[in-house]
Structure formats: structure tokens, C-alpha cells
Amino acid sequence: MKIIFAGTPEFAATALQSLHDAGFDIPLVLTQPDRPAGRGMQLQASPVKQYALAHGMPVAQPVSLRRDGKYPEIAREAHDLLQATEHDVMVVAAYGLILPRSVLGIPKHGCINIHASLLPRWRGAAPIHRAIEAGDAETGVTIMQMEEGLDTGPMLLIDRLPIAADETTGTLHDKLAHMGGSLIVEALKKLERGELGATPQPEAGANYAAKITKEEALLDFSQPAASLARKIRAFNPFPGASASFGGASVKLWRAEVLSATNGATSGQVLEAGPQSGVVVACGDGALRLTELQKPGGKRLPAAEFLKGFKMEGGRFD
């Protein structure tokens, strides 16, 4: 079976590696154009492009696939390339570009998506973040037949995974990436044998997993401690939860939920020591901050952080 693969970040690169390791023929890889990254803002190839080039796979990086969009000539060239490339199916994983109907209809078996959620629970750009933020007990990967709607297509295969109490988006991402790689290999082998069935998605229970913004990662300590703890885990490693202390933006990477605050005002630092960590009153309960980062500094355990950043008796704005 010949596969065109479309994806961009590390999640997608893991799936591409799984397909390559399984022996599938991959005559073309689509990925986003190189972007500026790092302190020097040098152009950097996506993880998918890096893997593809390292293994001799042809790569194309159209800025758009919409022939009626801003870059119609580029989109037309991309369509011509897809039609000229012999393939049976397109596998899509976190590609980042909209696939119009004209592209969805090119492959013999259509376009199949690897989605990091138990559809229809979280449709959209940030299903891993939103599952942790919402306090979901489990998540997983859905292999889905793509259609024009946003993650609305029929489900082909599903695998489930419990969300651990200390799970961060970073740790859960890695687990789901490997799960997605294994599941897409299984799906394509079933497709080759004619054994891959489709189940329509129910509309009940569908939620939109909006893209994460840096603004929403600024914590408000008037909220319940349990909610804030989930946000800290959901925004780890990107964009990193933060709060303002004495005019400085402090990143908060790990925290534990405590109960009573004895009527303290939300945001007040109740304790700040090497044993207790940084305990902050919240709208309901308190948070023990155990890993923090000051501007320009490194992520540090609370005991190390407090050696260079005084918090005792202060408060978060």
C-alpha cells in the first residue's frame, strides 16, 4: 500500500516513523513550511520534514491547499503533485492545513486522520490540553475517515488510555503519539485486508478543543485550587502556566491541591519554605507550588527557587 503522509510536529513524526518501520511505501510527505524558531529565530524544519529527509522520502511544503484561497497557484501545484503521485490513501496527523474537498477526494481510500482524543469528546486543535484541563478520567486515539467538517468523520479504530493524576500535556502527548503510531499501522493493515469498518460519530458529547493561547495560561487564584492544578498540568510544557508576583511573571510548572486556607485572601502566600514549598490561597482550597521559574531563570524545585526569589508574606496579583 502506498501512502502520502501529511503532518508537522513531533506527534506526527512518531506516526510517520511507525509507518516507515512497518514497511509501508511512502512516496510523498507533506508538512508545513519551515518556521523561525529558537533565540536566533533561524528557519527550522518541522520534525516530520527532518524524519522524512533523513530517510530519503520526498517532501513538499505548500503554504496552502485551497485553490480558492490566498495562494491559488501554490495550491494548484500541490493538487497536481498529489494527483501525479501514485498512492492509495493519505494519512494525516496534526498537519495544520485545511484539506479542502478537492484534496479529500484524490486518494483511492480517502484521507485518514490520527486524532488524539476519544471522539467526539474533543474536536479541534488542542485535545490533549483540554482533556487534562477539564479533568477527564481517560482519553485515547481515534483513527477517523476525514470529511469537510472539523473532526466529524466516521470513526475507524479507537484505543483508550487512563489519564494519571499527575499527567501533564507533555507526558500524555508522548503516550498518545506512540499509541497513534501503533493504531494507524493496525488500521492500514485492516484496510489492506478489507476489514476496516466505519462508525458514524454521535453529535452528543462533542466539544471544541480550542487552540491554547498564552493569555489563558495566566492563572487567577480566585478560582478553585483543583481547577488551577489541572491548568498547570495542561499548560506544561506549553505555554506554561504563569502568575504575577511583585510585578514579575512567575511560571508555575507543578502543584499539589491542599484543602483549608483559614479564610486567607486568594493569591496570598501562606507558606514559603524548603519543606513546605510555596503554599498559595485560592478561591477554594490552596495550592502547594513545587516547581517554579522566574523570568530568565530555569525551572527549579520550590526549595531551590526560593533561594533566589523571596515570597514569604507576599501575594500573587
Automatic annotation (TrEMBL):
Keywords of this entry: Protein biosynthesis, Transferase
Residue intervals of the Formyl transferase N-terminal domain: 1-188
EC number: 2.1.2.9
Pfam family for this entry, one: Formyl_trans_N
Gene3D superfamilies linked to this entry: 3.40.50.12230
Molecular function (Gene Ontology), one example: methionyl-tRNA formyltransferase activity
Descriptive protein name: Methionyl-tRNA formyltransferase
Organism of provenance: Noviherbaspirillum cavernae
